Amino acid sequence: MKVLGSYASGEWFVGNGKRQTLLNPATEEPVADISSEGLDLAAAFTFAREVGGAELRSMTFAHRAEVLLAASRAIHKEREHLLDLATENGGNTRGDAKFDVDGASGTLAFYANLGKELGNKKVLADGDAAQLSRGPRFVGQHVFVPRRGVALLINAFNFPAWGFGEKAACAWLAGMPIIMKPATSTALVATRIVELLVEQNIVPKGAITLLNGPAGSLTDHVGGEDVLSFTGGSKTAAMLRALPAVVSQSLRINIEADSLNAAVLGADVEVGSDLWNAFLRDVSRDITQKAGQKCTAIRRVFVPKDRVADVTEALAERLREVIVGNPKEDSVTMGPVATAAQLVDVRAGIERLAAEATYVLGDKAFQPVGAPAGKGFFVPPTLFSSEDPGKQNAVHAHEVFGPCASVLGYENPEGAITGVRRGGGALVSSIYSDDRALSTEFALGLGSAHGRLVITNAKICEQTVGPGTVLPHSIHGGPGRAGGGEELGGLRGLAFYSHRVALQGDRTLFEAMLA
Ligand code: NAP
Questions:
Q1: Catalytic annotation present for 295
Q2: Element (H, E) at 487
Q3: pLDDT in tens, 110-128
Q4: Total Cβ atoms within 10 A of residue 484
Q5: 256, 399, 441, 486: which one is catalytic?
Q6: pTM tops 0.90
Q7: Is 487 a catalytic residue?
Q8: How many other CB atoms are found less than 10 A from the CB of residue 271?
Q9: How far is it, in rounded angstroms, from Cα 175 to Cα 169?
């Protein structure tokens, strides 16, 4: 069986100590072992900082953009194989796997384009120069320069390809080397991507390090001008926030964590209209895509109180058509959750919701298609409803990271806003309405609790990609429970990996520097 090692200090390393086994979540068959015990982490950090950092900083934006483009193309060329690995190790249907793998190559290509436009410079302007004295030549100019450290990128299990691509694209374009640590349980896809980049000599020496396997003492090595970008659960995030380097050295840290995203149906939307159907399409897609294991998935569905029954029935009808099983079977439209631990977590979360709401859908005794009897980490699409969610707590406090959502009634727009905000800060919520005044009220009422709002009306409902898709043009991240992070958003995404410095001096010098 394949043993996944780490790539550090310019070479592959397979630990000879304790190993962990990665499973196929549909069959529970082993797919690979993983071990990095014994890896010299201190040397890996030093090599990345010194060799990788120097290489990247010597390159212009246009040159770094070529690296991103080559990485994007290499991933795209290997697409079929990566899709198979995502099915084997992540339980992804082909559609789910494409969402992840194409997300990675697409995001790298997007940043390659931005880098090409920045051209042959190494310093990025932040706004315009400001005249500082009477004469016109003495000015202040804010600029971004690359941080002289390493970007430690820790990712969650659900997006092994995109999670790498979205962080690496910004770090490399900004001029920082990366050390990536994929989640152990689904590391097969991320490992293959690194193999590709190394085999084809795509990234400069030292610009990429892969640390496979449990974190161990990994975070003991961060400090100084390093940055830490984390995606995962809020408990792990809380531990990272308390790291000595974060506390005493002001280590820059970005957290993408749990999120109780909402969809809000406006009272003006008529049953059976195009907008109504778009709303149902988005909600049911988010419940089932990647078996609900998307940080952006809709968990709470707010609808006018007198529409709870209609919406619940219409959603249940769609969800009953979902075929759950081994994603290797062509007929299957939803796979398992990724691990046995996730299965336990999701089931426990469903029990918590069930204690406070009406169970609409979610037959525990269902039979997954094409999976060996009694095997696999399957959860059926699960739906709850409540006409009076005011007294419910769990639905606003606990993220069930699986194919599960709750339909919640609201009395008036203010009630919907209050209800959504009970989630404590989210990555994204979506609003469905043709009423401009209502949409504006929702945008104002919900904006500060979100990283992104998707406002869909009848004119664009056939064009939108839905709230669950993270596009590199817009920022990704959310306040409060969602971690307080911010990634992507075009060139904004480079700021985290750069240092902003105010330069004061001769206008023409800065013009030349930034040309
Ligand atoms: P997790 O258990 O927190 O793990 C996330 C990552 O942290 C994994 O790579 C894990 O490695 C690593 N890790 C665990 N302990 C660590 C330590 N002591 N030091 C350093 N790294 C450590 O989360 P998960 O179960 O993989 O992901 C699910 C959660 O992620 C969900 O709550 C979801 O909402 C959230 N998520 C958020 C976003 C977003 O963009 N906001 C995106 C996707 C997922 P091991 O795998 O080796 O334990």
A1: yes
A2: strand 487-488
A3: 999 999 999 999 999 999 9
A4: 18
A5: 256
A6: yes
A7: no
A8: 10
A9: 10
